[in-house]
Amino acid sequence: MSEPVSVVIPNWNGKHHLATCLDSLRQQTLPPEEVIVVDDASSDGSVEFLRESYPWVTVIARRLNGGFTSTVNAGVAACRGTFVALLNNDTELHPEWLARMVQTLKAHEVAGSAACKMVRFHDRSVLDGAGDFLSRAASPYTRGFGEPDDGRYSVRESIFGACAGAALYRRQVFDSVGGLDEDFIVYYDDVDLAFRAQLAGFTCVYEPAAVCYHKRGATTGSNAIRLQERNLTAVHLKNLPGPLLLIGFPVLLFSRFRRLYRLVREGAGRPALRGTLQGLRLIPRMLAKRRQVQRSRRVSLRYVLSLLGEGA
After folding, report:
1. What average pLDDT does the segment 296-312 reach?
2. Which of 5, 82, 173, 292 is the most buried (most CB within 10 A)?
3. What's the maximum distance between 2 C-alpha atoms anywhere in the chain?
4. What does the alpha-carbon distance between residue 60 and residue 10 come to, in Å, rounded to a whole number?
5. pTM for this model (two decimals)
6. Could you give the C-alpha distances from 212 to 78, 92, 184, 188, 272, in angstroms and in order?
7. Position 153 pLDDT exceeds 80
8. Which one, of 147, 223, 146, 227, lies nearest residue 192 by Cα?
9. What is the pLDDT of residues 201-213, one digit of tens each?
10. So where are the chain's domains?
């Protein structure tokens, strides 16, 4: 292997997931150069389990819980690889996963990241996701979520971004646009990273031959909804170029009201409203970050517009 690959796995009280995930890494046809598990002050014995059962894994044991984005950034800062795989601890990889992902990035020189086919762990006939996309209102959605894995997403193609639960990045992406935004804490942090990378000229490729099985939770709690609504505002403020932000403002506003209405009808109105208001309080901080993001833009407005899909 000419370029080393590092794998970064954030962990918080995930001891019951780790064996499945790490055993699948050990069975890769293309073994990674290093595997780093960053433990976020777990209380379930994760660190002791790793050091006893997986001595080949580098463990970074954090004394305080810093949140998902901070944990991932700590792992990326410590790794040596030319390629960096981000992996959730509740995943299992097909033995060819890493080889397919590396081959894909090597075959696409302008691609900064590769997304894989994610399948539900407990029902492997159902997709968990086939890459991240944006709606016309720049709202993120997971293509194929909950759909049958019947070959409908079997073509390698350029997409908006990868789910950081199982993705491969060139280290150059992090060096150029920075890591995950720690103000996000969790949720849509990978969407923000994908947007910044696209603006800087790094595309993303979906590789259907790389398969990951994911134990995604069946439900999302109120805290998830709050953070998603909060962070969506941050994604838009930081990343949409000025002309598109101004021209598209009515569509954005309509989309947000429609999201809020839907969540109210589903009984999640309170966390959704809290998240929306918290997003507004992020405006000064995101505007400051926006300046750097937009100064780093290397693509045309027409290209950015092409990243936005159909529907509000």
Report:
1. 88
2. 5
3. 57
4. 10
5. 0.95
6. 24, 6, 25, 20, 31
7. yes
8. 227
9. 999 999 999 999 9
10. 222-297
